[in-house]
Amino acid sequence: QVQLVESGGGLVQAGGSLRLSCAASGRTFTSYTMGWFCQAPGKEREFVAAISRNGVNTNYADPVKGRFTISRDNAKNTVYLQMNSLKPEDTAVYYCAAGPHYGSRWLDYDYWGQGTQVTVSS
After folding, report:
1. How many angstroms separate the CA atoms of 3 and 116, rounded?
2. What was the pLDDT predicted at 26?
3. How far apart are CA 71 and CA 23, in angstroms?
4. Nearest-angstrom CA–CA distance, 43 and 111
5. Closest alpha carbon to 64 in 43, 41, 92
6. pLDDT digit of tens for each residue in the chain (122 aa)?
7. CB neighbourhood size of 11 (10 A)
8. SS3 string of 19-47?
9. What pLDDT, on a 0 to 100 scale, did the predictor assign at position 34?
10. Which residue, 115, 112, 122, is CA-closest to 90?
């Protein structure tokens, strides 16, 4: 079992920045690919970014490329999502996820956090 707890969400103006954190506990953090997904009201959960177990490989959804950066600190069992140049359409609940496969589908992930709200005002 892996427990994931997100933090860092909030209200920010368009063009601003936020950094989300996800602290993991339980089984070995380095055993898992880590991902971030988001879900806006009335929409399905969507892939945002993923990072491989050793942090070497990253993958991003097209809408966030060049604006968001995923990183991980395996010594701290934490994964981050730095969000810059935020847009109102980035407004959503952001979820951290852990899984055995380096993928962009929610099916690739076995463990999920409770989510943190990000609201971007225009």
Report:
1. 15
2. 77
3. 12
4. 21
5. 92
6. 899 999 999 999 999 999 999 999 977 899 999 999 999 999 999 999 999 999 999 999 999 999 999 999 999 999 999 999 999 999 999 999 999 989 999 999 999 999 999 999 99
7. 12
8. EEEEEEEECCHHHCEEEEEEECCCCCCEE
9. 98
10. 122
Pull the structure tokens for residue 93: 């609940």
Q: Tell me the Cα Rg of the chain.
A: 13
Considering only CA atoms, which of 38, 35, 31 is closest in space to residue 2?
31
Residue 29: which of 54, 9, 60, 58 has the closest Cα? Answer: 54
Residue 67, number of CB atoms within 10 A of its CB: 15
Structure tokens at 118: 């990000």
pLDDT for 1 equals 83
